Amino acid sequence: MHTRHVDLVLQESFWRELLLTWSFLPVTLADGGEYTPRMQTVIARLNPEARARALSGMVLLLEDVDRPTPNECLISVDAQTSEVSIRIFGRFLTDIQSTSEWILRQLMTAGQVFIITPHTRCFIALDTGGQRTDLTTGRAMPLRHRLWHGFYQENVYNINVTSMVITLTLMVVLFTSPTEAHSALGKFYGLCERILSAALMNVFLLLSQFYVYRKGRRVLEWEKP
After folding, report:
1. Which residues of the chain are under the pLDDT cut of 70?
2. Backbone conformation region of residue 74, classed left if phi is above 0, alpha if psi is from -120 to 50, else beta
3. I want to staple 58 with a disulfide (CB 3.0 to 4.6 A). Which of 77, 102, 117, 130 is the partner?
4. Which pTM value belongs to this model?
5. Which pairs count as long-range contacts for 99-108, CB under 8 Å and 24+ apart, including other chains?
6. Within 13 Å and on the Cβ side, how many CA atoms surround 188?
7. Which letter does DSSP use for residue 144 in this model?
8. What confidence score (pLDDT) does residue 121 get?
């Protein structure tokens, strides 16, 4: 993916604030020369082409210690092309998938810093002896992309019924004026008022469900094997 603000992304403080739960590891030794043993171990997992691309710009090495087997993350920023690459290394497929989703969600919350579209993809691959084998891929789903459509599909019955009830009862309340409260028309008017109040309460419930849906919505759509 690419960034709109290269100067900001080149600052380590930006990533520390964005990925608060991750630990930042030194990339080079204290004298600023060779890579640390941990860094050498990480980049040794990449094939020569991927290694050259990863080390072409600014590099950050991170570790997620909140998992049984810590995941490692290598962030590369190429100032010339404004390209940002994030590589996650782990032992378990589900851990890598959940970590990828969490990091992508954090990138999406960074405002307009990163260019993330439905064409942005996440690749999970196995590299053995320099031979790469793709296991699965995931397509990014920006928070604004198909958000209302997805919520509607999951709550189509509730939304349609609530909309129909509000429309009908609101028409009765607005265009009907009963002269006597105990007449048939007056009782029907009062019933419509109570139904309208209940339907409006259901609207607030739907809004709260939408908020929960937006927060918990998956940001990566993984392809089925």
Report:
1. 32, 68, 128-130, 143-147, 181, 215-217, 224-225
2. beta
3. 77
4. 0.68
5. 99/64, 99/71, 99/73, 100/124, 100/138, 100/220, 101/218, 101/219, 101/220, 103/19, 103/73, 104/140, 104/219, 104/220, 105/219, 106/18, 106/19, 107/1, 107/18, 108/142, 108/143, 108/219
6. 12
7. T
8. 85
How far apart, in whole angstroms, are the C-alpha atoms of residue 109 and residue 19? 11
Q: Which pLDDT value is given to residue 120? A: 86
The amino acid occupying position 78 is D
Whether the Cβ atoms of residue 199 and residue 173 lie closer than 8 Å to each other: no
Q: How high is the pLDDT of residue 225? A: 59
Question: The tokens 């009782």 sit on which residue?
Answer: 187
Q: Which pLDDT belongs to residue 62?
A: 92
Region of residue 99 (left: phi > 0; alpha: psi -120 to 50; beta: else): alpha
Outline where the chain has alpha helix (H).
Answer: 6-9, 12-18, 37-43, 48-54, 93-108, 147-154, 156-175, 184-216
Sequence-ordered list of residues with C-beta below 8 angstroms from that of 21, at least 6 positions apart, any chain: 64, 66
Neighbours of 80 (CB within 10 A): 8
d(CA 203, CA 209): 10
Q: Supply the pLDDT for residue 61.
A: 93
pLDDT of residue 224: 67
Q: Tokens standing for 133?
A: 């084998």
